[in-house]
Write the structure tokens for this entry.
Amino acid sequence: MTIRVTGTGSALPEKIVTNFELQKLVETSDEWIRERTGIAERRISTGETVSSLSAEACIKALEMAGRQPEEVDLILVATCSPELLLPCCACQVQDRIGAVKAVAFDVNAACSGFLFALNTAYAYLQTGIYQNALIVGSEVLSKLVDWTDRGTCVLFGDGAGAAFVEASVDDIVCENGRRAGMECMVQGSDGAKGMVLSCEERPVKNAFISEDIMQNPYIQMDGQEVYKFATRQVPACIHDALAKANLTVEDVDLFILHQANVRIIESVAKRLKADISKFPMNLDKIGNMSSATVPVLLDELNRSGKIKKGDRLVLSGFGAGLTYGASILVWGV
Ligand code: UT7
């Protein structure tokens, strides 16, 4: 038994914010942002929410899979920027799309969230508990960003991506002899380094505490530490996943990585000794959307016909937690 992705979808806010517009907010330049990150513009919410973007992406994924919302067993939304603490975003999505019989809950592993949700669904489907799942990565990070901090505000964007996955009992052998479906996954967490990329929730404040507690409600990041972590950990976990599946870098057609920084992706390609042409990127147009980057890129490649049946994909991400992971799958639709 394995799982196959049978539909993908994505949704982005309408508003485009270019680097030139950010020059008006903070001391930065289009040149600096492009050179250091590869980002030229990003989408920023002017009202779209994590649940509205998620629902739009889910509907598109279900349409592609040829499934109705009432057929969905499980909805997992990976997000670190929901509009409500309660109820969870996945329950909002269930209601918005009318997936009446689905079990729904959120997963927060920041930028690795979509991968962690995919792996959670894999476990549920493999054990036969559920037959299918909608997996979503969705963020409105613009509300968590300090728009006076040039070290972070230039990096992030808003958006959502979704994948519909189904348990696959039958062996689907592709023309190239590969068996379609998930082949293996690895994931990891390093909580001890968590504060290098953090964002505070409400501080402890109740009827029994009188003093005012100061807090910084925005994303705080030690960019260089995150950079070092990503360039070391991502290639290491991809190697682990390949070794687990008895594969080599040459067996992979596309590496769909978390879109945080073009330099991180280039460094990962170099460390893996893999051709950079196997690392598609879209961060120039949409920036870093945390958990949404991998599913949005997956959807873009899928809809533009750049992923073919039998292609072996490595999906890999890293982010706050710190968390990281890699999943290997052979495309089967
Ligand atoms: O999903 C995970 C999210 N996080 C990441 O992926 C972050 C990973 N880290 C990075 O991508 C990079 O570390 C950054 C893009 C955040 C920063 O690039 P860097 O090459 O590591 O720059 P830096 O932090 O070493 O800063 C170099 C200089 C500093 O000025 P001084 O001290 O040399 O005078 C910064 O103050 O660049 C300055 N700087 C900027 N200048 C213009 C920082 N941000 C900006 C900016 N525009 N937006």
About this structure: The chain is about 30% helix and 25% strand. The first helix runs from residue 19 to 23. The pocket of oxa(dethia)-CoA is lined by residues 28, 32-33, 36-37, 111, 150-151, 154, 221, 223-224, 226-227, 260-261, 288, 290, 319 (CB under 6 Å).
